[in-house]
Specification:
Cytochrome p450; about 425 residues; 18 helices; about 10% strand; five-stranded mixed β-sheet
């Protein structure tokens, strides 16, 4: 039996399946193969509880020790910080978190804005070269902005960033494990070489600091160093690119909201939170399994059972959010979404992602006041470096969604820029 969460339909629109599951109960068993089932958590209260429950382990190495998966993921990917439990998880997280504190992110904000302005200017040139035809907001802006930021933090040369993005995209390819496995080894090999180069010539960057922690205090093993660097490269841009792409699509589909935010940028922080809730960058959180029997959402989870928490499903739970399928900046209970997780594995880069998204929306709305979706849905949009879907657009307005069950974001977003406002914004 095919896994419904790995179908093209689920990539295009996961919400009908998630809503159907939630209607039967907040925790439901889904058949994911001939002899496999998985618990999927779509209720907000149950998802929040599960994300912080120590009885749900993320130690994939222990789980698959006597259950061969048939996969060939590089250890730097399969045994990352995301796949560890306390106390190792806390030790690794503490080493990484100094780069993502609110104060550190505040210092990064001016550079984030510079990169956003540079990308917006390049997007404008691409639009002019296309004769005011469509340009791709994902390939030309939403994806390269967070890639540039995290790669600067980790000293990844600009010439290598396109390859890093391709490997990262391939890691999340739905129903294509061989491609993901090959990409994991390519990315791990690249990061290993990058560490060697940075060890020989350290600088003022996060990677050099992690290398120093490894070499001076022996707080990291060499495999842990490689794995942590790989995780920061991937996690440091994937969810943010989806957040920006999803938020831009929501804006482009709502003229009144777009005008409101363009006229009052002070509303952008609230808009970012609502975009995170409405279209979660992560549809299904990464692997967890029960280390003992316990009750969750009225069902009995057995020891060894796999549990997938769905931020996308939980964020549209009507028991928590009024009109969950609608973008509303003013809510009785603002925030509260689970898009960055909850508990020990709450996203390290949440503050940076929020800052990047806020600046991205502000820069684009200011520079391109006439920004609109391309009506003809052409897929030959200028400014795109991402992979295209062989199936063509997934909606009449030309949007193509990434083919992945974990991540949620457009692969292409063709737009017409309209008149360019040359004067850049100056807020930080």
């Amino acid at each position: 039996m095919n896994n419904p969460m790995e179908s093209a339909e689920f990539s295009r629109d996961p919400y009908p399946l998630l809503a159907a599951l939630r209607a039967r109960g907040p925790v439901q068993r889904v058949r994911t193969g001939k002899d496999r089932t998985t618990w999927v958590v779509t209720g907000w209260a149950e998802a929040r509880a599960a994300l912080a429950d120590g009885r749900l382990s993320k130690d994939t190495a222990r789980y698959f020790a006597d259950r061969p998966s048939g996969r060939d993921l590089a250890p730097a990917v399969s045994r990352s910080m995301l796949a560890t439990d306390p106390p190792d998880h806390g030790r690794l997280r503490k080493l990484a978190m100094t780069a993502f504190t609110p104060a550190a992110v505040g210092r990064l904000a001016p550079r984030v804005r510079e990169i956003a302005e540079e990308l917006a200017a390049a997007l404008g040139r691409a639009g002019e070269a296309a004769g005011d035809g469509p340009v791709d907001l994902v390939g030309g802006f939403a994806a390269p902005l967070p890639i540039a930021v995290i790669c600067e933090l980790l000293a990844v040369p600009e010439a290598d960033r396109a390859a890093v993005r391709q490997w990262s995209d391939a890691l999340f390819a739905a129903a294509d494990p061989d491609t993901a496995d090959r990409a994991s080894h390519a990315l791990a090999g690249y990061v290993t070489e990058l560490i060697a180069a940075r060890r020989a010539a350290p600088g003022d960057d996060v990677l050099s600091a992690l290398i120093a922690a490894r070499d001076a205090g022996d707080r990291l093993t060499e495999p842990e160093l490689v794995s942590l660097a790989v995780l920061l490269v991937v996690a440091g841009h994937e969810t943010t690119a989806n957040l920006i792409g999803n938020g831009l699509l929501a804006l482009l589909r709502d003229d009144a909201l777009r005008a409101r935010l363009r006229d009052d940028p002070g509303l952008l922080p609230a808009a970012v939170e609502e975009f995170l809730r409405y279209e979660a960058p992560v549809t299904l959180a990464t692997f967890r399994y029960a280390t003992e029997e316990f009750d969750l959402g009225g069902v009995r989870i057995g020891a060894g059972d796999v549990v997938l928490v769905s931020p996308g499903g939980a964020n549209r739970d009507p028991a928590r959010f009024d009109e969950p399928d609608t973008v509303r900046l003013e809510r009785a209970a603002p925030g509260g979404h689970l898009s960055f997780g909850h508990g020990p594995h709450h996203c390290l880069g949440a503050a940076l992602a929020r800052t990047e998204a806020r600046i991205a929306f502000e820069v684009l709305l200011a520079r391109f006041p006439g920004l609109r979706l391309a009506a003809d849905g052409r897929q030959d949009a200028a400014g795109s470096e991402g992979s295209e879907s062989p199936d063509g657009p997934d909606s009449p307005d030309g949007v193509t969604w990434r083919r992945t069950r974990l991540m949620r974001g457009p692969a292409q977003l063709p737009v017409v820029l309209g008149p360019l406002r040359a004067a850049p914004v100056v807020r930080t």
